[in-house]
Amino acid sequence: NETTIPLSEGGNDFVTIAKVSDSQESVEDPVDYTDARENLYSLTFNEDGAYEVSLNVTDQYGNTSPVGETRSFVLDQTIPEIAISYDDEVTENTAANERYFQQGRTASVIFTERNIDLEKSQVEVTATDVDSNEKMTGIWTLQQIKDGEARNEYLSVENVTDSLNTDETPDYPENNRTVSFDIHFAGEANYTLKLLAVDLSGASVEAPGQEQTDSPLYRFTVDGTAPEGSISAMQNTWELFVEAITFGLFSANSQEVSMTGTDETAGVFSLEYVVLEEILTKDELISRDAQGEISWEMDEEGRAPAGTVGRSCTRDPDSRNIIYTKVTDY
Fold first, then answer.
1. Would you tell me how many other CB atoms lie within 10 Å of the CB of residue 8?
2. Of 165, 173, 124, nearest in space to 146 by CA
3. Which residues, in sequence order, are bridge partners of residue 85?
4. Spatial separation of the C-alpha atoms in residues 183 and 191, rounded to whole Å
5. SS3 label, residue 285
C-alpha cells in the first residue's frame, strides 16, 4: 500500500521516523533560516516487506521539490524454517535400537521462507559402512533438487513442489513460499542428513535437532541384509547351517572353538552360541529359540557396533558337541 507520511508525524507501524540533527538548530526566529539549512532524519523500518521509498520537501512558503529518486529494498527479519518427518509409521518400518531400519525409509522435507535462496539452501547426505568408510557424499542445492539432479544408487529425491510455481523469485511474495520434497533412502548404509536453509538476506538455519548425534531424524542406518557367522574347530570352518550331521571329528585333547560374526553396515550387536548334543534343523532351532527353549551363551553387554566380532570357547574331551551360533546386527 502506498502511504505518504509527513516526517513530523514520527511514522507508523511500518516505519519509525526520528529527527537526528538540524544544521541551523540554534536559529531562534524561523525567518532567519537560510536555504543552506540541512535536516537529517532517520527512518527505521520495523515490519518485513518490500519497500519503495521516495522523498520530497516543502518549505514554509509552499515551495515543493520534485519527488526524489525511489529506493527499493526488502526487509526480511524472519528466519527460514525446516520441517522433517518420515513414513516409518505408514510403512510399519519399525526401528531396532532406535535408529536401525531393515528397509528403506522416506523423509518428507519442507523449507518455508518468503525469500528462499535456492542456490545456497542445500541438502547434504553422507553414507558410510560400519567402520565409517565413506560410500557416498552428496550435496545438492534446492535449485538442483528442483532440476531433478539429486539421485544416485543410495537415494532419490522425488515429489518436488514449489508453492511459487515459477523459476523466478519475487522480492517479496504475499505469502510464505514453501519448497517441499521427499528423500527416499534405499541403499544399505549408515546415513547422516544435514539440511540448511538460507534466505536472500543471508540469514540461515539448520534443521532443528540436527546437531544431536543420536537423532534418528538425521542419523540412521538402513540394513536389510542378515549378518554372517562362522565356526572354526580342528582346522575346519563352517559358514553355512549344517542340518545333516555326522560325528567325524575326534580329539583326545581339549579343543578351542572360535566363532565369528560379520555385518558390514549396521555392525554386529551380539554373537551368541549354544552347545547341544542333539541335532536340530534350522527351522527347529528358530522355533525353539522363539519359545525361549535355547539357553544361549550371551555376549558382552554394551558392545559398540563392529564390522567383525569374534569369541571362542573350549570343549573338553569325552564330550559330544554340536555348536550353534546366532549373530544379531543392530
1. 8
2. 165
3. 108
4. 12
5. helix
Pairing mode, strands 100-101 and 219-222: parallel
pLDDT of residue 152: 96
pLDDT at 263 over 60: yes
Give the HSE-up count for residue 142: Cα atoms under 13 Å, Cβ half-sphere.
27
End-to-end CA distance of the chain: 60
What is the residue whose three cell numbers read 558337541?
321
Asked whether residue 306 carries a pLDDT value surpassing 90, the answer given is no
Residue whose entry in the numeric block shows the C-alpha cell 536472500: 200
Q: How confident is the model at residue 97 (pLDDT cuts 50, 70, 90)?
A: confident
Which residue do the cell numbers 566363532 mark? 259
Residue 172 scores a pLDDT above 60: no
| Cβ atoms 93, 99 nearer than 8 A | no
* Mean pLDDT across 230-247: 81
Name every residue whose Cβ is closer than 8 Å to that of residue 262 and which is 6 or more positions away in sequence: 227, 228, 229, 268, 307, 308, 309, 327
Q: Would the pLDDT of 310 be above 60?
A: yes
Q: Report the pLDDT value the prediction gives residue 175, as an integer from 0 to 100.
A: 61
Distance of CA 13 to the CA centre of its chain: 39
208: cell is 532443528
Question: Strand ranges (DSSP E) for 67-177?
Answer: 71-75, 81-86, 100-101, 105-112, 122-128, 134-141, 155-162
C-alpha distances in Å from residue 269, one per residue of 41, 99, 130, 279, 308: 70, 13, 12, 27, 10
Q: Looking at the chain, how many residues does it have?
A: 330
Cell of 295: 539357553
- CA separation (Å) from 143 to 116, 117, 140, 291? 11, 9, 8, 54
Q: Cα–Cα distance between 300 and 297 in angstroms, integer?
A: 10
The three cell numbers locating residue 104: 528403506
